[in-house]
Design goal:
The protein is built from seven helices and three strands, in the order αβααββαααα. The protein has a three-stranded antiparallel β-sheet. The chain is globular, with a radius of gyration of 17 Å.
Length: 162
């Protein structure tokens, strides 16, 4: 797992505090890497919406906002339905085989929440590509990336052994 994925996992598992500035030095010590990969990971995570700006150059894990989650889910659900409708008549055996393979991998219990979310997207993406609507596909992919940080919390209760 790379440093960016490790930070995402820690965000999903509440291992990094919300609303508190993240310091590169502390993260460097925590993940046992130099500050350069930390800086790069933080910039990438900020661009993806996992982190929000704090101060002049800092970042923090944002608080969850139900309005944002609802907006993302509404946009994603409507656009995904539209994209799937456009793809439906063009889905062939190739797409179905790829989707089945991904589904079999999704049943692995060893998947992290991030891996589960990414594989779930790949499953849907394989089917949506049959629509041949590149711009719409990219918008849905972007929404999916933003919603993953909320999606992970949906699956926590489901995936915790009793």
């Amino acid at each position: 797992m790379n440093i960016k994925e490790a930070i995402k996992e820690d965000i999903l598992n509440n291992q990094l505090p919300r609303g508190v500035p993240l310091r590169q030095v502390e993260l460097s010590e925590r993940y046992k890497v130099s500050r350069i990969p930390i800086r790069d990971a933080l910039l990438s995570l900020k661009a993806e919406g996992w982190l929000s700006p704090h101060g002049k150059a800092g970042v923090m894990v944002p608080e969850f906002r139900w309005e944002e989650a609802e907006d993302l889910y509404l946009m994603r659900s409507r656009l995904e339905c539209l994209l799937f409708e456009m793809a439906f008549d063009h889905i062939g055996e190739t797409e179905l085989k790829a989707a089945r393979l991904i589904l079999s991998e999704l049943n692995q219990e060893s998947l992290s929440l991030i891996q589960y979310g990414e594989m779930n997207w790949h499953f849907h993406s394989v089917l949506y590509q049959a629509a041949n609507r590149v711009a719409l596909h990219q918008v849905v992919e972007g929404l999916n990336e933003k919603v993953i940080r909320y999606l992970g919390f949906q699956y926590v209760a489901f995936r915790i052994p009793s």
